[in-house]
């Protein structure tokens, strides 16, 4: 099924939320490969269900699923982020995006982004951004092809020892 | 996995490692699945991975090593000895699977596994080490390039029928 014919909308049933939670875990499992700081907790499924519930309810959140023949095949989650000193505030930031492997290469992610961008704009976003692991080169070329440019670099290091108080 | 500190030791895989080996093979194939729809995994991936590991123990042409942190298996490498039939050198050690748990990345565990594998294969008289990975796996590509590997085989496909 072509991406144009897919429904992109918020999840409407428990079943869809459940499937979205599964996809969220799959998304984070991919990220795990890029850095130890993306390692998930031991039992991520129940946490993913709570997160999806929160994304679905929160005012500043956008959660959409791609539905093909009644089945959820992808998801996107973004939020509006405020920094009142910036003219571009609030920003719409897409933090999680996942399309099931058997539905890749037909523009589903692109449509998810377009629809999420619309929703984020409705919530006031002046620009949209995407966050993903620095080493995810597939994501880099994907977003570049869609006209995105690098904005923020996040550098990180572990805090080795506990601070004694 | 509670913590990620401590030194890493490499040893031959044993039957008691089977569950962990299968788990890592599953994780590896799931990574591949993300990289290309042609690597979509089967429904019974876990079961197949367990059989794959079991059979590997019985195959004299397979070498499997594990990386341990304390008494915990945190990485694995599996290689099989391949006969190149038409070419010299005839025998090649082919890395079919190499995986390190994400918590134990960025400290050279995969390199340690590879070095130990190289030694193990050299003892068997093998002079060529090769590895295969999906073309989209940039992490693998960079890792092997850094370890001095060069491209050797291009596999193309198209769907038919």
Can you lay out the helices and strands and say which pair or pack?
The complex is a heterodimer of chains A (165) and B (161).
Chain A: E1 7-9, H1 14-32, H2 44-57, E2 61-68, E3 71-81, E4 91-99, H3 108-122, E5 127-130, H4 137-145
Parallel strand pairs in A: 4-5
Antiparallel strand pairs in A: 1-2, 2-3, 3-4
Helix pairs in contact in A: 1-2
Chain B: E1 8-12, H1 18-35, H2 45-58, E2 62-69, E3 72-83, E4 91-100, H3 109-123, E5 129-131, H4 138-146
Helix pairs in contact in B: 1-2
| Number of discrete helical segments of chain A | 4
Quote the beta fraction of chain B. Answer: 15-25%
Mean pLDDT of chain B: 94
Q: What is the count of structural domains of chain B? A: 1
CATH structural class of chain A: Alpha Beta
Strand order of the largest sheet of chain A: 1-2-3-4-5
What is the H-and-E element order of chain B? EHHEEEHEH
Name the shape of chain B in a single word.
globular
Q: Give the proportion of residues in helices of chain A.
A: 25-40%
> Could you report the average pLDDT of chain A, rounded to the nearest whole number?
94
Quaternary structure classification: heterodimer
Order of strands in the sheet with most strands of chain B:
1-2-3-4-5
Distance between the termini of chain A: 59 Å
E-strand count of chain B: 5
Description:
The complex is a heterodimer of chains A (165) and B (161). Chain A is 35% helix and 21% strand. Chain A is of the alpha+beta class. Chain A has one domain (3-145): 3-Layer(aba) Sandwich (Aminopeptidase), CATH 3.40.630.30. The N and C termini of chain A lie far apart (59 Å). Chain B is built from four helices and five strands, in the order E-H-H-E-E-E-H-E-H. In chain B, strands 1-2-3-4-5 form a five-stranded mixed sheet, sandwiched between helices. In chain B, strand 3 (72-83) and strand 4 form a beta hairpin. The mean pLDDT of chain B is 94. Classes of the chains: A alpha+beta (165), B alpha+beta (161). At the A-B interface, helix 1 of A face helix 1 of B.
């Amino acid at each position: 099924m072509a991406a144009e014919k897919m429904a992109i909308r918020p999840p409407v049933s428990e079943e869809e939320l459940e499937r979205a939670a599964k996809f969220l875990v799959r998304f984070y499992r991919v990220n795990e490969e890029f850095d130890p700081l993306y390692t998930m907790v031991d039992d991520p499924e129940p946490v993913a269900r709570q997160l999806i519930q929160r994304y679905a309810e929160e005012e500043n959140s956008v959660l959409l699923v791609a539905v093909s023949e009644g089945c959820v095949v992808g998801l996107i989650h973004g939020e509006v982020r405020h920094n009142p000193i910036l003219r571009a505030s609030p920003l719409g930031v897409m933090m999680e995006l996942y399309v099931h492997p058997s539905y890749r290469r037909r523009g589903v992610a692109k449509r998810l982004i377009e629809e999420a961008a619309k929703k984020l704009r409705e919530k006031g976003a002046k620009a949209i951004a995407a966050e993903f692991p620095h080493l995810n080169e597939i994501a880099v070329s994907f977003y570049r092809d869609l006209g995105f440019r690098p904005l923020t670099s996040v550098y990180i290091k572990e805090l080795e020892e506990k601070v004694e108080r | 996995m509670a913590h990620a500190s401590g030194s890493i030791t490499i040893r031959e895989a044993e039957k008691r490692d089977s569950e962990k080996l299968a788990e890592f093979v599953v994780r590896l194939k799931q990574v591949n699945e993300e990289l290309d729809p042609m690597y979509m995994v089967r429904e019974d991936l876990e079961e197949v991975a367990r059989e794959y590991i079991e059979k590997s123990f019985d195959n004299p042409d397979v070498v499997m090593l594990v990386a341990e942190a304390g008494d915990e298996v945190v990485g694995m490498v599996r290689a099989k000895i391949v006969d190149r039939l038409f070419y010299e050198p005839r025998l090649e050690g082919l890395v079919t699977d190499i995986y390190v748990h994400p918590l134990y990345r960025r400290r050279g565990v995969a390199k340690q596994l590879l070095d130990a594998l190289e030694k193990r294969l050299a003892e068997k008289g093998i002079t060529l080490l090769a590895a295969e990975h999906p073309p989209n796996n940039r992490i693998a590509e960079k890792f092997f390039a850094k370890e001095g590997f060069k491209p050797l085989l291009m596999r193309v496909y198209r769907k038919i029928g």
